[in-house]
Amino acid sequence: MTLKLAVVGGGVSGLAAAHRALELGRAAGRPVAVSLFEARARLGGAVGTERRDGYLVEMGADMFVTDKPWALSLCERLGLGGRLVGANAAYRRSLVLRAGKPLPVPEGFMLMAPARLGRVLASPILSLRGKLRILCEPFVPARHDDDDESLGAFARRRLGKEALERLVEPLVAGIYTGDPEHLSLRATLPRFLAMEREHGSLWRGQRRALGRGRAEEGASGARYGLFVSFPDGMAELLDALETRLRAGGVALELGTSVLGLERTAAGFALTRRRPARPRPGRAAWTEPPPSDGETVRELFDAVVVALPAPRGAALLAAASPALAAALGSIEHASSAIVVSGYRRADVRHPLDAFGLVVPAAEGRQIFSVSFASRKFPGRAPEGHVLLRSFVGGLRHGELLRRSDEALCALVRRELAALLGVGGRPDFELVARHERAMPQYDVGHLGRVAAIERLLAAEPALAVATNALHGVGVPDCVHAGERAAEHVWARATAPS
Ligand SMILES: Cc1cc2nc3c(=O)[nH]c(=O)nc-3n(C[C@H](O)[C@H](O)[C@H](O)COP(=O)(O)OP(=O)(O)OC[C@H]3O[C@@H](n4cnc5c(N)ncnc54)[C@H](O)[C@@H]3O)c2cc1C
């Protein structure tokens, strides 16, 4: 019998779920009828690439890491393995703002692990007192209890308050748009906990990683050697998935908001709103107004809810109040990226890094700027540069109430002050990501375990979201694939 599966949400998680369902059906020689419902007129969710005046603009994620295998494996199955490009080796370092000036993060300092104490001593980022405190790191006794320590508490304990405020906080905020005092170390960056356990010190752990070739000589900030994208941007992954899904007969229903989910004797009834008119172009980034279109109710054997947790919680409120409450308890941050293109001659700073992170202590209105045209080739025309400035996050969520024009003006002022950017930008685009970044706060792993217990008891329902086991693109691919495998296993189990 054909399995009738609905996937709600057409971001990376939903696309990976639909793709895996096709693979499973094909491998088992059993038909599967997949419908994917996406509220916007475009697929990709927080991932999307646009072309503007010769620039290639990433509106959300601009790369993925290769040490988590799931996105890489998907690319290979889609025939994209040969299209992957690594991040430019010439600029694999970060800058951090200190007293209004961009300074290089000391060579070998990776998020919170210093490999070269000499470089930390030579850097003007920390005061003498801050440097002396970091020198003590190898002698700070390791903790071996099972407490869920916050990332901030861990960094303060091992490296001192100043290193936390001046290096760790801005580097981590650049990834999670969150507050290290609330984020759980175990749930976000467990490798540093493992370093402390295994080597007794972050410095020793990072030195060993260098010795074993697991860390990169000369780099600083993040593990840039693991970053990959495509010559034509992340859209290559979305396009390949869309082509594969259409070829496999998946019904891709764009501009279609799912409004409700009810249990039935044999599965779920899904209510959705089909829009009256398709909305092409930039409007594809926004959802159609809820009043648009006709309402349709349809029965499915199984459902994968592939939405950000707050949206998933709202959809599941009637079908599973306990699951909805648990998903709804995970806090999310909102942010916006203002992407702007400039003539190289209009930027005083050499942009000799992948980007600039800004500590909260600096009191600025942006929390990071990515020098996008330094990371991957083909992002800006010759003689021009592409900058992506991040606004909002937990630190300044209120700024997102401002209009696009006001956000662009704010970013122009910040870029002028911090990087000497003058002249008129070739273009500016604002990408808003409302409640898109889950906060893995202290206690997160307990919340995830409770959600997993509830989901284990659901044979025909699965959740694929960045709010549980990882926020990155590879994590979302994994979440989508696991969700498809869950409903498939239950649907095909002998009764
Ligand atoms: C600004 C930003 C930058 C990032 N940068 C990186 C990066 O460089 N590298 C990396 O690995 N990760 C990055 N991430 C993380 C990663 O991109 C996201 O975690 C991932 O793309 C989320 O995918 P998703 O499918 O789970 O959710 P989403 O992408 O949010 O997709 C959910 C989809 O569901 C749709 N939807 C919502 N409600 C409904 C409904 N009722 N009915 C139908 N459809 C609905 C939405 O329109 C959306 O398309 C970044 C995230 C953000 C926000």
Describe the structure.
With 495 residues, this protein is α+β, with helices and mostly antiparallel strands. The chain has 3 domains: 3-47 and 234-330 and 440-492, FAD/NAD(P)-binding domain (3-Layer(bba) Sandwich); 49-69 and 77-89 and 228-232 and 332-438, Alpha-Beta Complex (Polyamine Oxidase, Chain A, domain 2); 106-141 and 148-217, protoporphyrinogen ix oxidase, domain 3 (Orthogonal Bundle). The chain has 16 helices and 22 strands. The chain has helices spanning 12-28, 69-77, 117-122, 128-135, 151-159, 161-176, 185-188, 190-199, 202-211, 235-247, 309-316, 321-328, 372-375, 404-419, 444-456, 473-492; strands at 3-8, 32-38, 49-52, 55-58, 64-65, 85-86, 94-98, 101-104, 109-110, 113-114, 227-229, 251-254, 257-263, 268-274, 294-300, 302-305, 332-343, 355-357, 366-371, 384-392, 427-438, 461-463. A 7-stranded mixed β-sheet has the order 8-7-18-19-20-17-21, sandwiched between helices. The longest helix has 20 residues, at 473-492. The protein is globular, with a radius of gyration of 23 Å. The two termini are 14 Å apart. 51% of the residues are buried. The structure holds flavin-adenine dinucleotide. Residues 8-14, 37-40, 45-47, 60-64, 257-258, 306-308, 311, 315, 335, 337, 433, 436-437, 465-466, 471-473, 476 line the site of flavin-adenine dinucleotide.
